């Protein structure tokens, strides 16, 4: 059975929204009509709390320049943003002590009600902590100096054989492959050559290289399937659907999608075989 995350605060999200062209640009520009819980900002990035969180401590890392796709970021902007994704994940982990994280990006019509690119960092818990967002914000601000510290990279295995038996490998360094339990046709994943299970076991330059391959894979899938959007993300720690070897999922989204099998039978219907997906994407790669 699928995992359930009860997030009552998200119900307010469907209510009245500020009348601004871009909510995140308005937050960046300190528009008085838009309220937020700001944690950190500089000229390139801001870190804010999601005011309608999936779980306590849910934060977002937002590049300051308005872009709507990863491929629109210059390499230095992407590297800087990813550096703060690493820092922020470590920051939240130290303060909130979750079991793990869902880290994700929604592009296009894939749940992205705000077009301005942003990275969601959702801490996951065995037991949801009973603490108000205002109190978490106060603790975050008291410890914001931690965000200014670069992540220390620990020792990791350089190589492994995790994907040796994978029949649908598109590229080997980094590993790019058709995911064998796809959410949709065209679902691919990217993994580093090094055996790691957390983005904070990679240097920022390694993470940049990994995300540049994510962009390549996403572009290939987009050229073939023409989806309405993408969910891009990873699951880290002792939480559902996490893996021993880090996986960045690139999931194309289509209209329409959900039918009674997904809702009633907890069975995802994929209208293309893995072999068909592999042959199509391999030709594009």
What's a quick, concise take on this entry?
This protein is α+β, with helices and mostly antiparallel strands and 285 residues long. 27% of the residues lie in helices and 20% in strands.
Verbal overview:
Helix 2 packs across helix 4 (204-225). This protein is globular. It is an alpha+beta fold. Strands 1-2-3-5-4-9-10-8-7-6 form a 10-stranded antiparallel β-sheet. 27% of the residues lie in helices and 20% in strands. The protein has 2 domains: 1-151, HIT-like (HIT family, subunit A); 153-285, HIT-like (HIT family, subunit A), CATH 3.30.428. The chain has 6 helices and 10 strands; from the N terminus they run αβββαββαβββαββαα.
Question: Topology of this protein?
Answer:
Elements: H1 23-28, E1 37-41, E2 45-49, E3 59-63, H2 75-96, E4 100-108, E5 119-124, H3 133-142, E6 169-172, E7 175-178, E8 188-191, H4 204-225, E9 229-237, E10 248-253, H5 260-264, H6 274-284
Antiparallel strand pairs: 1-2, 2-3, 3-5, 4-5, 4-9, 6-7, 7-8, 8-10, 9-10
For the biggest sheet, the summary is: 10 strands, antiparallel
Any idea what the CATH architecture of the largest domain is? 2-Layer Sandwich
Q: Supply the number of structural domains.
A: 2
Which class of the largest domain in CATH terms? Alpha Beta
Shape: globular
Number of strands: 10
Named CATH topology of the largest domain: HIT family, subunit A
What structural class do you assign from the helix and strand content?
Answer: alpha+beta
CA gyration radius, whole angstroms:
19 Å
| Number of alpha- plus pi-helical segments | 6
């Amino acid at each position: 059975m699928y995992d359930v995350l009860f997030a009552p605060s998200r119900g307010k999200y469907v209510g009245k929204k500020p009348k601004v062209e871009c909510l995140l640009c308005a937050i960046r520009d300190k528009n008085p009509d838009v309220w937020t819980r700001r944690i950190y900002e500089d000229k390139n990035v801001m870190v804010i709390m999601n005011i309608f969180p999936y779980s306590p401590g849910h934060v977002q890392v937002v590049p300051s320049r308005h872009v709507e796709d990863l491929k629109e970021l210059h390499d230095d902007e992407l590297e800087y943003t990813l550096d703060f994704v690493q820092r922020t994940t470590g920051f939240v982990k130290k303060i909130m002590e979750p079991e793990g994280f869902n880290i994700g990006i929604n592009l296009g019509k894939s749940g992205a009600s705000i077009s301005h690119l942003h990275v969601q960092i959702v801490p996951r818990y065995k037991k949801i902590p009973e603490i108000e967002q205002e109190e978490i914000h106060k603790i975050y601000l008291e410890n914001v100096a931690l965000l200014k510290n670069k992540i220390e990279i620990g020792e990791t295995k350089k190589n492994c054989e995790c994907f040796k038996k994978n029949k649908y490998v598109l590229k080997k360094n980094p590993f790019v492959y058709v995911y064998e339990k796809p959410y949709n046709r065209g679902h691919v994943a990217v993994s580093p050559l090094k055996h790691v299970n957390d983005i904070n076991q990679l240097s920022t330059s390694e993470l940049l290289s990994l995300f540049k391959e994510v962009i390549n894979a996403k572009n290939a899938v987009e050229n073939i399937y023409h989806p309405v959007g993408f969910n891009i993300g990873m699951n880290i720690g002792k939480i559902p659907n996490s893996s021993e070897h880090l996986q960045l999922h690139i999931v194309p989204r289509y209209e329409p999608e959900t039918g009674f099998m997904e809702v009633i039978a907890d069975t995802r219907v994929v209208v293309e075989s893995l072999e068909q997906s592999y042959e199509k994407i391999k030709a594009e790669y």
